[in-house]
Amino acid sequence: MQCLRSTQPVDYLPEVCGLEHSTLQITIEQKRHPMRKYLLLSAFLVTTATGFAQTTWKADPFHSRLGFTVTHLGINDVPGHFGDYEVTITSAKPDFSDAVVELSAQTATINTRVEARDKHLKSADFFDVEKFPTMSFKSTSIKKDGKNKYKLSGPLTMHGVTKLVTVTMQYRGTANNPAAKTDAAGIQITGIINRADFGIGAGFPPPMISNQVNIIADGEFNKK
What we know:
The chain is of the alpha+beta class. The chain has three helices and twelve strands, in the order H-H-E-E-E-E-E-E-H-E-E-E-E-E-E. Strand 2 (about 65-70) and strand 3 (about 75-80) form a beta hairpin.
């Protein structure tokens, strides 16, 4: 079948050579404006790259806390925290649903408000801080677990042992921080780890000290 030729305007062309009107019109428009498709493609790529740009958030040490509790004698929770740590979150989405969380803490800065107990916790009986001065965590997966809540999983390295752990992250909102002159996001991370998995305090089994350690970390993360 031969192609039909027509001198009619494009808006009135019937189906020609198996091409519908809209397809034929686009083809003709591309021939008239060969650079248009490249400009549109460039604009699309720029918009896409901007939309998926990673943003870095760092914990503000003045408004954050890396805390924990253990149960003593099976009847009472004893709190503590680490004083020197860095936590960074990278995310491309405003709800942090794609967040990657990285933590590094100095074990020698453990603080339970009792000097003698802290000295014991730093010894080889527990954290052995001279041999293992840092503990670290980096999330490798994130799954939604409710409104603004997510399950973070990743390797935790502590006391020379690395284990996969899962914790809960809650995004609590974003506000402008006038002192830091940037936005700040509220993030809370909670979870449970087993100290026996990391060989910490093996000589002090439950019920003297619970194997279960409750993690409670609250942070204000400033946008960088």
